[in-house]
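Retry 2 of 3 after timeout on previous attempt. Resubmitting structure tokens to design endpoint.
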């Protein structure tokens, strides 16, 4: 299971660009979320929860529609392919779009 400090900025009860899960965090698939994740990584040891290129591509493929990705791009040091996928697809993936997957991780049998 991915881990991150409990200092994650939001919880499922108060969503922001992050959703906390035990010792893991999920950030929205947008440049702002990428910047927050990068800043967090400079200060806290962590690994992303469902926040890689494969996760983003799966969410884009499952989405009926997604808002355009705006703003300048940013590096994703934990998975360089994620930044490339964001540029390639050019859409945001908000946590609401992947909520079923996130909740499934919290369900019976979740680690």
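Retry 2 succeeded. Sequence:
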């Amino acid at each position: 299971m991915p881990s991150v400090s409990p200092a994650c900025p939001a919880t499922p009860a108060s969503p922001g660009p992050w959703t906390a899960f035990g010792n893991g965090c999920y950030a929205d698939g947008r440049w702002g979320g990428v910047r927050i994740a990068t800043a967090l990584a400079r200060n806290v040891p962590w690994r992303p929860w469902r926040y890689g290129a494969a996760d983003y591509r799966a969410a884009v493929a499952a989405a009926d529609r997604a808002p355009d990705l705006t703003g300048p791009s940013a590096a994703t040091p934990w998975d360089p392919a994620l930044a490339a996928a964001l540029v390639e697809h050019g859409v945001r993936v908000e946590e609401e779009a992947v909520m079923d997957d996130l909740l499934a991780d919290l369900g019976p049998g979740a680690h």
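Attempt log closed. The chain has one domain: 18-105.
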